[in-house]
Amino acid sequence: MSVPPNxxxxxxxxxxxxxxxxxxxxxxxxxxxxxxxxxxxPTQYEFAYEWIRxxxxxxxxxxxxxxxxxxxxxxVAHSGPWFQDADTLVRExxxxxxxxxxxxxxxxxxxxxxxxHVRTAWGKVDTAERSKIGAAGELALVKLLTVSTHAxxxxxxxxxxxxxxxxxxxxxxxxxxxxxKSTIRRGRLVVYLSRNEYExxxxxxxxxxxxxxxxxELDPKAVATVPRDWIAAQVPADxxxxxxxxxxxxxxxxxxxxxxxxxxxxxxxxxxSALLSGSTGWPG
Length: 284
Hints:
Elements: H1 6-18, H2 24-33, H3 42-54, H4 67-77, H5 86-89, H6 98-106, H7 111-148, E1 152-154, E2 167-171, E3 174-183, E4 189-194, H8 195-203, E5 207-214, E6 220-226, H9 228-234, E7 247-252, E8 258-259, H10 274-277
Parallel strand pairs: 3-5
Antiparallel strand pairs: 1-2, 2-3, 4-7, 5-6, 6-8
Helix pairs in contact: 1-3, 1-4, 4-7
């Protein structure tokens, strides 16, 4: 979805400013008959109304956030595929896309404010997306392990997030504690590691960081393990006793993940899924 033209953005603001106190029919009549609103055509008003409906702005017309800021945030979040990588593509205001800068100017938002809005909007969308994809990946991995091993498989994250891992695979002579991370992207792997997860890795030799690559439909496509020594070499260090990191982001290069779950190999059945044995490889 591209960023709407300037008149449509301004029309969207006018809709949101009036909808809390008036019905759509009355507002539509006002826009089409009163000279104060004739700078925007009826067609543009209708396009704006449909746009705020499709982008979800009609779901909370009584929001305390100013209308022009809601319109800008929505324009950013629905502006195209670049937005999913905004954290790396836009590192300063001057790197904002031209259509986003145009929208900001039309809505009376400065370049610096626009940059803050982009970073904030990306953070909200990324958090929600990671939650959805992460849950899907965990469940997919639990199902794959359940049908591919002789061991007992427990989805411990379903009842507590304090273990420092998500899935326990237990057998009399062998066990694996899996911290699962998921992605739908190819060519870029970003994982977020909590302090508790990292410290669990340090004290638990059975701990493994396993990444599940999902299709856009959230079906499992490939599984790989990120080596523990690579993780230990990347995490930040506490500089003093007064400062302590609680979570960190790891950008994992394509050649780092090891296909499959090598530590789980002794537990796999002869008919084990190729995704878990690693024979499918790990796409870059």
